[in-house]
């Protein structure tokens, strides 16, 4: 290892520019020991053979995965260690060991499928013959093998072979299919995720038609942040997400290298120098960049290159990987050294200035894929071609509108049968011919090399960028360069490429017209600006490009003729505080680069469109029908804007991106600098909660669709509190007087209310007046709604705002101070990260629950004290009646004695005699007490009498605790509650599943307490 480091340091000294060399940092990555378990619930002989084969023990996630699969739950194994694929192989051998059982494994690419087939073949050679799986790789040159026990294919083979010919070539396979495995499921994002979701529905239909059900579904992928929504968007079922980070990993080193404009040349030079030291090197690059590396390196057994990681001693990343999680997986792939060669992409320039961010261990985000109508329509035609589509299925899936549209255009026809059944009509072309996971409709754009270049097959590209990113003379990959487009055919959706190693890069110059179709939601952004989400029609004209090379100055040649495109997709928009210069729509790309850095998506998946007349910047999803990025940007824009500003600040000296950086800094700096000084000084914390879904009509330009939740006790309806004892109406009004007193200072309390919502008012600028019911009239600050008329209500007006049972200490109800308090202040939610915000919200939730329970307990104690005082006052006349009542016979008719004077008025000295009804309260209390004691004495389990207060019982165990329970062993607490005064647990055991445990009967002790950050389900 030391000689490799000496080699790259020597190269860095040779290429050093002045005092700063290209080698930015070398960091040691420590090894991870991993965790182990003694056994897992599989066949004993298979377990022994597997341990002898790999020479290592079993891991906890393997036991959890096999248990969940046998319960019929889909399992997602997400880990930063690529060796988690061995767990998938183990599960396949364990679940498909019996006869007449088969499985289908979907690899993300043809190269990955070949690698999996080779690994399964090696495992079969070393396992006993009784446990071997007959693996078959579906290739165009091979005949189908329906008798195979494991079928390895790609998404294209899944769509075009297994499902299309299910009733012919694969009719013997489908009745045996019992398991489906999806490798690298994180790659199916955006439009690809919509395609895979429809493929899963088609697979279920075909399996059911052959009398088979697929209860076992397993997927592998990177370690991701909150992957459950994206998983459920692909397969609508309760997934079991397991972490495979209990696998061991070796120590390694990470070197960060600042490359020049020709980063691929530098990566090739580094690989050649390291290979001379006797090391095997792999260069990780984009698929289209293989055309550049092929003439540089040729064919060598010691140096390989491609988009898939390969075995070797050193891996060189030509540019930052596709996501942060990809880099974390490379560091745990067994390489001795990982070299990260940064290029000139926008976020790579930011990482060059802040190289510590390149080592960020945070997991990437996987935005959920929406329902894309274009994708669904194409898969409906395929599903109808496989099996006639019935009316019941149409209503169950919810695709009635799409089916009607296809039927009206003649693409679907109803078969002449009693039952409605749809089949593809004569107007429908072959739906299987033009199908690509990266295209919403039709096939992908194919990139062919120039004549004379050596390439086996064309490279598929996203067709949404055909006019924007692939015009004639454009540089590819976008913002990086290395290839020049020398041929462009819009009709055939093909381009021709030529190698261009001069460091040339380009950016498109555009004109955009955005027509909003609907506005779904809107909320404040940093107090004074708004962010909204909806759907729009975009008409885009690409009239030129801005280009730069290492030997020239920036130029802006025009395209002749210009290219135009039009599409409809979801979008989000930001109302800008200023009007920045945006010639050629060179604005907003810094935020698009921040999206690429934070997620598994690319910068080209979102298109910024600026409308200077409205001072509004749109971010439109590039694929027709949408890819899910607009919703994710709308929810996480507060975290993206600071990162976008850092990217713009880093690119301000780049000749190509300088106009983009200047325009983005002009609107980002004023937007990020806006804070509420009053909210900064106050110690109150405001939690922003999204507003409910608006009505179908369009939302005005500046509504107030947020609710402000303050950390206050949960309110109880105050109108239900008066007159708890209707038997005695005379003394009752005096008792609830302490509750009725606070309404006088309550006009100053709309800000601390637990819920504050927008209420329609005819005078939006009128401040809150000290009326008897000021809480129901709480309105936004006068300065905010003055720019518009009264907005429509976000939820029904008859719902009143509940009042707190015991309000906080009142503040001065001055009209001048009132408008400043309700101002929304999202600063705490904006400055903190997502996990910190969730932790803060969880603590606030617990505190509010404790305060609510404490107030309920105090209220109950107060009621009991009032009852006791009332009973004592009622009992006092029986003991003290003779002395005070004899000299004052005229005081026989006070208001508290209204029921008695009519019967006891004539005999004045006999006044104590009509009091037998007064001690009835004590007698009733005493009788109830005796009855309660009798009931408690009859209980089977003797327990101390509970206090009259409603104080909550203390739970010993929390959700997520790892406990040891006899005789079941170690398990995880899934639920904990109080039943009849005793704590009852629901514990999940690896071997026994979920059991209900009583800690008073079974011996239970805590092994590991749940992490507080994992209790997000309380929020």
How many helices? The count is: 25
Report the average pLDDT across residues.
Answer: 79
Distance between the termini: 48 Å
Strand order of the largest sheet: 4-5-3-6-7-2-9
Low-confidence stretches: 675-830, 877-917, 944-950, 1012-1019
Indicate the percent of residues in helices. Answer: 25-40%
Strand content: 15-25%
* Structural Rg: 35 Å
How many beta-strand runs? 35
SSE class: alpha/beta
- Outline: globular
Largest sheet: 7 strands, parallel
In short:
This protein has 1019 residues and is α/β, with parallel strands linked by helices.
Describe what this molecule looks like in 3D.
It is a single chain. With 1019 residues, the protein is of the alpha/beta class. Among the domains are: 188 residues, P-loop containing nucleotide triphosphate hydrolases (Rossmann fold), CATH 3.40.50.300; 42 residues; 228 residues, no CATH class; 57 residues. Helix content is 29%, strand content 21%. The protein has 25 helices and 35 strands. A seven-stranded parallel beta sheet has the order 4-5-3-6-7-2-9.
């Amino acid at each position: 290892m030391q000689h490799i480091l000496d080699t790259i340091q020597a190269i860095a000294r040779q290429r050093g520019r002045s005092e700063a060399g290209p080698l930015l940092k070398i960091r040691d990555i420590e090894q991870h020991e991993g965790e182990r378990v003694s056994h897992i619930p599989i066949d004993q002989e298979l377990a022994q053979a597997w341990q002898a084969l790999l020479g290592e023990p079993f891991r906890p996630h393997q036991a959890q995965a096999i248990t969940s699969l046998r319960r019929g739950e889909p399992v997602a194994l997400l880990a930063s260690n690529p060796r988690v694929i061995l767990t998938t192989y183990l599960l396949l051998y364990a679940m498909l060991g019996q006869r007449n059982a088969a499985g289908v494994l979907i690899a993300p690419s043809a190269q990955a499928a070949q690698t999996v087939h080779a690994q399964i073949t090696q495992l079969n050679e070393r396992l006993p013959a009784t446990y071997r799986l007959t693996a078959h790789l579906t290739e165009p040159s091979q005949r189908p093998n329906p008798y195979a026990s494991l079928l390895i294919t790609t998404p294209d083979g899944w769509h075009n072979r297994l499902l299309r010919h299910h009733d012919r070539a694969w009719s013997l396979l489908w009745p045996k299919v019992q398991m489906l495995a999806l490798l690298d499921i994180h790659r199916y994002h955006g439009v690809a995720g919509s395609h895979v979701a429809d493929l899963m529905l088609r697979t279920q239909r075909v399996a059911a038609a052959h009398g088979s059900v697929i209860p076992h579904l397993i997927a592998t992928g990177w370690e991701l942040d909150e992957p459950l929504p994206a998983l459920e968007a692909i397969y609508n079922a309760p997934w079991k997400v397991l972490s495979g980070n209990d696998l061991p990993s070796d120590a390694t080193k990470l070197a960060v290298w600042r490359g020049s404009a020709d980063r691929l040349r530098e990566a090739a030079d580094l690989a050649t120098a390291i290979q001379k030291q006797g090391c095997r090197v792999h260069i990780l690059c984009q698929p289209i960049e293989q055309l550049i590396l092929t003439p540089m390196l040729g064919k060598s057994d010691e140096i390989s290159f491609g988009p898939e990681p390969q075995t070797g001693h050193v891996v060189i990343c030509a540019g930052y990987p596709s996501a942060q999680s990809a880099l974390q997986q490379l560091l745990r792939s067994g390489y001795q050294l990982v070299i990260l060669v940064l290029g000139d992409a926008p976020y790579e320039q930011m990482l060059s200035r802040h190289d510590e961010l390149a080592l960020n261990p945070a997991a990437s985000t996987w935005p959920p894929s929406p329902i894309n109508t274009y994708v669904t329509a194409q898969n409906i035609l395929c599903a109808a071609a496989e099996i006639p589509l019935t009316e019941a299925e149409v209503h169950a899936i919810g695709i009635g509108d799409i089916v009607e549209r296809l039927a009206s255009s003649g693409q679907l026809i109803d078969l002449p049968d009693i039952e409605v059944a749809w089949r593809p009509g004569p107007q429908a072309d072959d739906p299987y011919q033009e199908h690509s996971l990266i295209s919403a409709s039709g096939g992908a754009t194919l990139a062919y090399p120039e004549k004379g270049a050596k390439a086996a097959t064309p490279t598929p590209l996203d067709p949404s960028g055909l006019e924007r990113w692939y015009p004639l003379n454009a540089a590819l990959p976008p913002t990086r360069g290395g290839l020049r487009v020398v041929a462009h055919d819009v009709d055939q959706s093909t381009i021709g490429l030529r190698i261009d190693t001069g460091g040339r890069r380009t950016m498109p110059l555009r004109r955009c017209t955005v027509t909003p179709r609907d506005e779904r939601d809107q909320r404040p952004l940093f107090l004074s600006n708004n962010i909204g989400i909806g759907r729009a029609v975009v008409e885009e004209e690409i009239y030129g490009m801005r280009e730069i090379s290492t030997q020239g100055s920036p130029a802006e040649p025009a395209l002749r003729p210009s290219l135009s495109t039009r599409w409809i997709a979801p979008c989000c928009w930001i109302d800008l505080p200023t009007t920045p210069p945006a010639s050629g729509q060179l604005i907003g790309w810094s935020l698009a680069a921040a999206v690429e850095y934070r997620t598994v998506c690319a910068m080209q998946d979102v298109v910024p469109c600026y409308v200077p007349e409205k001072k509004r910047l749109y971010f439109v999803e590039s694929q027709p029908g949408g890819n899910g990025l607009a919703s994710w940007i709308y929810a996480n824009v507060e975290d993206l804007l600071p990162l976008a500003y850092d990217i713009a600040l880093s690119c301000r000296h780049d000749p190509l991106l300088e106009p983009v950086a200047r325009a983005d800094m002009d609107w980002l700096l004023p937007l990020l600098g806006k804070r509420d000084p009053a909210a900064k000084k106050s110690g109150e914390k405001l939690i922003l909660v999204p507003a409910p879904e608006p009505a179908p009509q369009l939302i005005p330009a500046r509504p107030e669709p947020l609710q402000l939740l303050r950390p206050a006790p949960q309110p109880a309806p105050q109108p239900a509190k008066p007159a708890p004892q209707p038997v005695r109406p005379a003394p009752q009004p005096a008792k609830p007087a302490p509750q009725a007193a606070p309404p006088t200072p309550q006009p100053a309390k709309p800000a601390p209310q637990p819920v504050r919502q927008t209420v329609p008012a005819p005078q939006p600028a009128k401040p809150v007046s000290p009326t008897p019911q000021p809480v129901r009239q709480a309105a936004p600050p006068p300065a905010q709604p003055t720019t518009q008329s009264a907005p429509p209500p976000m939820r029904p007006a008859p719902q009143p705002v509940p009042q707190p049972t015991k309000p906080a200490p009142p503040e001065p109800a001055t009209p001048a101070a009132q408008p400043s308090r309700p101002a929304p202040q999202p600063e705490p939610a904006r400055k903190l990260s997502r996990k910190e915000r969730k932790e803060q919200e969880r603590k606030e939730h617990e505190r509010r629950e404790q305060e609510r329970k404490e107030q309920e307990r105090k209220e109950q104690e107060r009621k009991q004290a009032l009852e006791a005082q009332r009973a004592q006052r009622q009992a006092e006349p029986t003991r003290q009646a003779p002395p005070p009542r004899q000299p004052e016979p005229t005081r026989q008719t006070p208001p508290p004695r209204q029921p008695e004077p009519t019967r006891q008025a004539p005999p004045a000295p006999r006044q104590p005699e009509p009091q037998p009804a007064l001690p009835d309260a004590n007698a009733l209390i005493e009788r109830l007490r005796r009855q309660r004691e009798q009931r408690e004495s009859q209980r089977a389990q003797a327990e101390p009498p509970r206090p009259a207060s409603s104080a909550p019982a203390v739970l010993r165990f929390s959700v997520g605790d790892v406990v040891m329970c006899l005789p079941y062993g170690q398990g995880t607490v899934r639920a904990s509650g109080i039943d009849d005064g005793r704590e009852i647990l629901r514990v999940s055991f690896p071997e026994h599943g979920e059991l209900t445990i009583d800690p008073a009967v079974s011996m239970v002790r805590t092994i590991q307490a749940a992490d507080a950050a994992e209790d997000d389900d309380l929020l």
